[in-house]
Amino acid sequence: MGGYYGLAVLVGVASLLTTGQCDVSCSGTDGHPGQAGAPGRNGWPGAKGEKGEPAARAEGPVDAGVLLMLKGEIGSRGLQGAMGPKGYRGDLGPAGRPGNPGRPGADGKSIGHGQHALQQAHSASSAIRTDVSYPRYNQPVTYQNTVVNKPGDFNAATGHFTCRVPGVYYFTFHSVAKVSMCLYIATDAPFNKLGFCDYNRNADQVLSGGVVLQLAARQKVWLESFRDQQTDPGVRDTREKQIIFSGFLLF
Question: What is its main location (predicted)?
Answer without folding.
Answer: secreted
